[in-house]
């Protein structure tokens, strides 16, 4: 057992939205994720199967890595009184919640030139101090202290979802740029309250749909946008996890549409450059984990887009050959396909057959570069006061689609998104 797991073992009760201040830290499985995001891109040995939620990583928790991302410095760095250029002031970033995703972001910030991780906030002292030490930064128990810190220009919210809204609003009122992990909230009215404050205060909010920064999906998007395949007619998104999450996670996940498919609803909007108008879902709970959680583990969603395109998303909580993340977009002049990613691209051909490595089986491996990319985009956005690459409306739309998908399952019919988007319906927005 490594040191961090030993700390975690003292108390394992504090996951998923319950900030039990008497506990020292979430479970060891969270620590496994932390361990898995150690220095350098973790490479899975094809000889040692690792699974999504298992404690199988032995790589030590890694902090700083050699800076790799593009330099991003504040535009207000100015000059010295002597007229000589001032040393650019780094963009100060604070992270709220340093669990598995908070550490992914801490690692990315540590490798981004022109960014400085000013502090991390987490209610669990031993754990928070350990993470802070790994990343050579300061730990604070109270996230409000981090938000009030004048050296913090931008705040990364990686706390459990139920805390996002309060933290977004506090950051916005304090004038801080915000990166919020998806989802902003699982409740549309709560999302709207947040977005109102963001709008009123004029701060920038970037929502953590990191798949938009995956090189495959970016290329698919740019090919579609270039017109090379003509008008988009259909698309097929395949999104399968290697194995279901633990029962306690499933029970609080919000269900397959909010927890898992929301990424795919975002991808449909991203690659098509259009809004989702309606969804129709067929699904099943094939395994006991989903049955006991009252959820589904296998679903096919048919989507109709505002530009006339239509497509399917296939989700499965289990996939025997790894983390299956693919897309095809078919147009009037051709198609574009984005495939899986593997630790290597070696193909072995013998008289017995032709074999290649399996895809990554862990989302943090598959999307390692995407997480770095989105955090680099956040730092650049803050430094240059630039465009928001994934804004509040992008954070909201997949949640509307998820609500529509839930209703489609319940009523066994096609559901238009405006049926569940009560705020827009009340405002008379089409
Ligand atoms: N974009 C993605 O692919 C992706 C992947 C994983 C998680 N997420 C999202 O990130 C968020 C966090 O998920 P996670 O898996 O890292 O969870 P986690 O449980 O591993 O980490 C959450 C951390 O927040 C801390 N915390 C608890 N209450 C807090 C509070 N009130 N203020 C500050 N910190 C608090 C916990 O101690 C813990 O360290 C969730 O919203 C989740 O949906 C997104």
From TrEMBL:
Annotated protein name in UniProt: Uncharacterized protein
């Amino acid at each position: 057992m490594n040191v961090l797991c030993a700390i975690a073992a003292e108390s394992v009760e504090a996951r998923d939205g319950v900030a039990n201040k008497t506990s020292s830290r979430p479970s060891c499985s969270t620590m496994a994720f932390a361990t898995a995001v150690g220095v350098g891109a973790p490479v899975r040995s094809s000889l040692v199967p690792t699974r999504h939620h298992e404690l199988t990583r032995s790589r030590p928790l890694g902090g700083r890595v050699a800076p790799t991302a593009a330099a991003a410095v504040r535009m207000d760095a100015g000059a010295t009184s002597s007229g000589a250029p001032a040393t650019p002031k780094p963009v100060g970033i604070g992270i709220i919640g340093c669990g598995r995703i908070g550490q992914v972001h801490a690692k990315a910030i540590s490798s981004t030139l022109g960014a400085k991780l000013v502090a991390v906030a987490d209610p669990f002292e031993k754990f928070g101090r350990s993470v802070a030490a790994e990343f050579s930064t300061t730990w604070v128990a109270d996230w409000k202290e981090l938000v009030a810190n004048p050296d913090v220009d931008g705040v990364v919210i990686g706390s459990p979802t139920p805390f996002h809204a309060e933290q977004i609003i506090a950051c916005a009122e304090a004038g801080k740029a915000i990166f919020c992990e998806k989802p902003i909230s699982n409740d549309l009215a709560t999302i709207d309250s947040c977005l109102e404050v963001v709008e009123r205060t004029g701060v920038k909010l970037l929502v953590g749909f990191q798949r938009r920064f995956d090189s495959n999906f970016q290329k698919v998007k740019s090919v579609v946008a270039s017109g090379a395949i003509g008008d988009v007619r259909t698309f097929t998104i395949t999104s399968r996890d290697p194995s279901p999450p633990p029962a306690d996670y499933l029970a609080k996940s919000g269900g397959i549409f909010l927890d898992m498919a929301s990424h795919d609803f975002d991808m449909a909007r991203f690659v098509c450059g259009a809004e989702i108008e309606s969804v129709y879902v067929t699904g099943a709970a094939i395994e006991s984990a989903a049955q006991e959680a009252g959820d589904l583990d296998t679903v096919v969603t048919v989507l109709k887009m505002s530009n006339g395109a239509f497509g399917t998303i296939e989700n499965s909580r289990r996939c025997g050959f790894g983390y299956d993340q693919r897309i095809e977009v078919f147009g009037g002049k051709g198609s574009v396909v984005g495939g899986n990613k593997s630790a290597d691209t070696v193909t072995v051909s013998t008289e017995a057959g032709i074999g290649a490595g399996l895809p990554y089986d862990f989302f943090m491996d598959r999307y390692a570069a995407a997480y770095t990319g989105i955090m680099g985009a956040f730092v650049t956005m803050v430094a240059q006061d630039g465009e928001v690459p994934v804004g509040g409306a992008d954070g909201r739309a997949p949640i509307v689609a998820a609500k529509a998908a839930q209703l489609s399952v319940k009523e066994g019919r096609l559901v238009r998104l405006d049926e569940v988007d009560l705020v827009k319906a009340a405002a008379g927005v089409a």
